[in-house]
Structure formats: structure tokens, C-alpha cells
Design brief:
The complex is a heterodimer of chains A (398) and B (133).
Chain A (H helix, E strand, L loop, with lengths): L4 E8 L10 H16 L8 E5 L7 H8 L6 E3 L6 H14 L5 E9 L39 H16 L4 H15 L13 H6 L2 E4 L1 E2 L8 E10 H4 L4 H6 L1 E10 L12 H16 L8 E3 L5 H10 L8 H6 L16 H4 L4 H16 L13 E8 L3 E9 L3
Parallel strand pairs in A: 2-3, 2-4, 9-10
Antiparallel strand pairs in A: 1-7, 1-8, 4-7, 5-6, 8-11, 10-11
Helix pairs in contact in A: 1-2, 3-13, 4-10, 5-10, 9-10
Chain B lengths: L3 E3 L4 E2 L5 E7 L5 E2 L14 E6 L2 E10 L10 E8 L2 E7 L14 E11 L5 E9 L4
Parallel strand pairs in B: 1-10
Antiparallel strand pairs in B: 2-3, 3-4, 3-5, 6-7, 6-9, 7-8, 9-10
Classes of the chains: A alpha/beta (398), B mainly beta (133).
The complex binds zinc ion.
Chain lengths: 398, 133
């Protein structure tokens, strides 16, 4: 029988601009705070998993700042699911019984990074020469569709509209309006300014229907979590046991083959498969959730994940949103942190920061934005390529 | 002497330009890129199939911010061509949501990307609205 695993300590830094701190400063801050929150030190930790997708720092570099104890380090990269992958990695080690404590850290420095993916189009060569797996004689981004994230996820949301109807520019903008409204209660968010529907719709268009405030915010930030085994937790103090959060499910899935999935990434099936596994493992259904943090890298993405996480009937995401359910006072609050659109999306930190948000509520420590009596929550990320990470978390009974 | 070259090797030029795909002989999965094996069934034999030149827009976006060097705005779309999804730009249409709609009927068209120093002309493809009759 594999060990259960618990979050013993967890932290996220303020997300936003940190011009005076580098990735190691932020990672150290989150890691040391998570250790303190857990009531342990680096000497207790048996394994470290570390993600810094765009920055190139490593877990070994973090160890050289906060504790070189000789333990194994896994440097992980899984696009926007990097943080969830780091967490999943230490959970695997704990559940396998190899270590009592694991530390997962994700960090990114992205303030002012602009448009991610795509880069700069190369100049055409002097002679047309076929290259690559499509035998292309010139760059295809912008000539055969788009490779930018806002455009790819715009198409993912619009595809939902083609299948089920009911979507519009205004509907997607209203999703962003909700998340920006939620962010006003989150002091750690990059942006915590309420935005009106008009402001959102009249802002700079990036990739229709996504305007700038409907896109995830590039920012600096880090998050870290200490994971402990069930058997070790039993030996710890009542205070530690009371604040520990049970990891009822930790799931990573990749996208299975489907027609067209190599033409437009399919983030739907990969999420649905992950959700199904997670609910089954946790022994709960979506109706048991008190709050959800899902991967709203774009407003168009949030809509499809209502359906993919089975928060609504298949095809019912528009009605679900229009019912008011995902607002913080609705029956299924989604992204009460403000989500990636306003809290921010420091890529490798995101998959731990959303778990932090859930833990904060389950511990009853979420202050003004506390969802009253929260007992169970779900954190979801998508890394394009694709990976889905889902963690279901439960309040301690201690 | 080849005076024209397609932008990608799955575009076939000539009197009736069209796209081709590699179809898995075992399961029928279709791919546009060079294949090592089938992602669905791991089969390794493929045949070349022609893709219909007309289809339906199943999703689109109008890209207003792209990497430097890419002219904007442009319309990126997925077109369902007889059951095979194709990634493309929509061309010969105003890039705004009044003129581009989900479910619109479109057809393949080709255009010049310019002539290189050896005198070879590269030909790209896009999909354009089918005029209502
Ligand atoms: Zn096959």
C-alpha cells in the first residue's frame, strides 16, 4: 500500500515586478518560507524538484543558496505544467516511501517578457530551401496559421463555440471581468484592479477574441511546497497535523492521439482524462468541490475547462458561466485568486501557486477572499504540447 | 527546370493545387509532417492521400500581435476538409469578425511568396471564402 502524501508547508511570493531580485532570490524566498511554514529545515528534505522553464537556473543552484545537503535534485520542464510536474515528482518519491519529506519549487522572471513563443520571424533565405518536418522553404508562423499562445488558445475557445454555440467576444470578456474582480481581494496578485467589461473589450486586441486583460499576465514570482508522508506526519505536532493538507489526488496526463490534435493542440481530452483520474483517485465528484483554480492562461481557455473538469454538463460551459456559478459567491467558485489573467503566470511557479491558493482556503487562512468552510479544492494546469496536471486537496481532519 | 516550389511539401502545385497527407495504412490517421510512425497505432506504413480543397471553418482567431516580421492582422483558422482538420490562414477576406465567421465555407487558393536569387518562385496557400452562388 503506497503512502498517502500531504502538503505540510507551502508558500508563494508576491507576483509582479521584482527588479531587484533574480530567480534564485525568489526561489529561495519561497522555499525558505515553505520550510518555515512546514516547521522543518533543508536537513529534513529527502528530495528536491525544481522548475525554472525560461530562466535556466537549477535546483543545485538553489541548494547553494539555502542548503547543500547532497539530496537528489530533479530539474523538471513541462511547459506551463512545470510547477505541477515538480510537485508531482516529489509526491511520487514520498508515496513510494523513499523519502519522508520532499520540496518542490517553481520560479520564473517574466516581467516585461512580451509575447511568448513564436520569437522573431527569421529573414527568408536567399534561395528557397526546404527545411524541417514540413519541408518548409520559409517560416510558417503567420503564413500557415499562428503559433502564438494567445492565438492558439483563442482558437481553442472559438472551437468550443463552433461545437456548442453561445460564445461571443463579450462572453469571453465577461470571464476576464470575473477574474479581475476576484483579484481585488488578493494582495499577492500582479494586478488587483477591477476592470469593467467595457475596459476589457476596448483594451488592445491581441488575438481575437482575446484582448490584453484576457491574457495571462507575465510577471516574476515563485512558489514552493513541502510534501510529507502519511506515516511521518503522524509523528509531528498537532499544529502541523491540523494545518497539513491532504493530497487526495495528484495526476499528470499527456494528450492522447485524436484526429486533428497535431493541427490544433487538444487541451480538452488531456484535461478530461486527468479530471476523471483525479476524481476517481480522490473518491469524490466535481459537485464535492468547494473551489477550483483552473488554468485560465486566456479567457478563452477558462471556458473550455469548465466543461473539461466536468464542472458542468458536456457542452454546458456557457450556461454554467452565465448562471454566475464560477463567481466567488457562486455555487462553484473558479479562480478566486484572480487567475492567471490578473494574479499572473510566472510559468514554472503557477502549478504550485494554484495549490497554495487552495491550501490557503482549506486552512482557513485566505483572509478577505476566504471561501467559507472550504473542505475540498482542485488545482489544474495545462502545459501546451501537452500536459495536464491536477491536484485535489482536502482539509485535514486533525 | 523547376521554376516554382511549394511553401511546404504537403502542398502540391500544378493545374489543380491541393494538399496531401500521409495516411496510416493500419488505422487511417492522417498527418502533414514527416513521420517516424503513427501516433495512434504505431504503424509504420503510410500512403499519400489528397485532401479536399473545400471545407468549413471550425475555429479561427484574428491575430493582431505577432512576432516581429509577421504582418498583422491576419486570420488563422482550422478548416475541416472532408473530416481532415487543416491549419491555415484565411485570405481574400477582411480580417474582422463581421466577415470571418464560424462555419463559413472556404476553398484552397495559392499565391506567390516571391522569387529567390536563383529565379525560383515560392508558392504559399490559404483558404478563401467560397462565393455564394
Ligand atoms: Zn495508425
Amino acid at each position: 500500500m503506497a503512502e498517502n502524501a500531504w502538503i505540510l508547508g507551502i508558500n508563494m511570493t508576491k507576483f509582479g515586478k521584482h527588479p531587484d531580485k533574480d530567480a534564485l532570490d525568489l526561489a529561495s524566498e519561497a522555499a525558505l518560507a515553505a520550510l518555515k511554514d512546514a516547521g522543518v529545515t533543508m536537513k529534513d528534505i529527502g528530495v528536491l524538484a525544481y522548475g525554472n522553464l525560461m530562466g535556466g537556473s537549477s535546483g543545485q543552484m538553489l541548494q547553494k543558496q539555502i542548503g547543500q545537503t547532497g539530496i537528489p535534485v530533479f530539474n523538471v520542464a513541462n511547459a506551463c505544467a512545470t510547477g505541477a510536474t515538480a510537485l508531482r515528482t516529489v509526491i511520487l518519491a514520498v508515496k513510494a516511501g523513499e523519502v519522508d519529506f520532499g520540496l518542490a519549487v517553481g520560479v520564473e522572471k517574466l516581467s516585461g517578457a512580451g509575447l511568448l513563443a513564436g520569437g522573431t520571424r527569421k529573414e527568408d533565405e536567399p534561395t528557397w530551401t526546404p527545411h524541417g518536418r514540413f519541408g518548409a522553404v520559409a517560416a510558417i508562423d503567420g503564413r500557415i496559421g499562428t503559433e502564438t499562445m494567445p492565438g492558439v488558445f483563442a482558437q481553442i475557445g472559438m472551437e468550443y463555440g463552433y461545437k456548442y454555440g453561445g460564445t461571443s467576444f463579450e462572453l469571453f470578456a465577461r470571464i476576464a471581468e470575473k477574474n479581475h474582480a476576484h483579484s481585488t481581494l488578493n494582495p499577492l496578485a500582479t494586478y488587483s484592479k477591477r476592470m469593467s467589461l467595457e475596459e476589457i473589450m476596448n483594451d488592445v486586441m491581441i488575438a481575437y477574441p482575446n484582448t490584453r486583460p484576457m491574457c495571462s499576465a507575465n510577471c516574476d514570482g515563485a512558489a514552493a511546497a513541502v510534501v510529507v508522508s502519511d506515516s511521518k506526519l503522524k509523528t509531528l505536532s498537532l499544529e502541523q497535523r491540523r494545518r497539513a493538507v491532504k493530497i487526495a489526488a495528484s495526476v499528470l496526463t499527456t494528450d492522447p492521439w485524436e484526429e486533428g490534435c497535431q493541427v490544433l493542440p487538444n487541451v480538452n481530452t488531456v484535461t478530461r482524462n486527468g479530471a476523471r483520474q483525479a476524481y476517481e483517485t480522490a473518491g469524490i465528484g466535481p459537485e464535492d468541490l468547494d473551489l477550483v483554480e483552473l488554468h485560465d492562461c486566456f479567457a478563452t481557455a477558462e471556458l473550455v475547462h469548465y466543461d473539461n473538469l466536468m464542472l458542468c454538463e458536456p457542452g454546458g460551459a456557457v450556461d454554467f458561466f452565465n448562471s454566475g456559478a464560477p463567481w466567488r459567491d457562486g455555487r462553484m467558485p473558479v479562480n478566486v485568486s484572480g487567475g492567471l489573467e490578473s494574479k499572473g503566470h510566472p510559468i514554472a511557479a503557477t502549478g504550485i501557486a494554484n495549490v497554495w491558493e487552495i491550501c490557503h482556503h482549506l486552512r482557513g487562512e485566505a483572509g478577505d477572499r476566504q471561501i467559507p468552510g472550504a473542505k475540498v479544492g482542485l488545482a489544474h494546469v495545462i502545459g501546451l504540447g501537452s500536459t495536464c496536471g491536477i491536484h485535489i486537496l482536502e482539509k485535514s481532519a486533525a | 527546370m523547376a521554376s516554382q516550389i511549394p511553401l511546404v511539401d504537403y502542398l502540391v502545385l500544378g493545374d489543380e493545387p491541393h494538399l496531401i497527407a500521409h495516411e496510416c495504412e493500419q488505422c487511417g490517421a492522417r498527418y502533414f509532417d514527416h513521420r517516424n510512425a503513427c501516433a495512434n497505432c504505431s504503424g509504420t506504413s503510410f500512403k499519400t492521400v489528397d485532401i479536399p480543397t473545400e471545407g468549413t471553418v471550425t475555429t479561427f482567431t484574428i491575430v493582431s500581435l505577432a512576432a516581429p516580421g509577421i504582418p498583422v492582422p491576419f486570420v488563422s483558422a482550422i478548416v475541416d476538409c472532408g473530416g481532415t482538420p487543416v491549419r491555415t490562414n484565411l485570405v481574400n477576406v477582411e480580417p474582422d469578425p463581421e466577415h470571418v465567421t464560424l462555419g463559413m465555407k472556404v476553398r484552397l487558393t495559392t499565391f506567390s511568396l516571391g522569387v529567390d536569387s536563383a529565379g525560383v518562385e515560392a508558392i504559399g496557400f490559404g483558404f478563401e471564402p467560397v462565393p455564394s452562388s
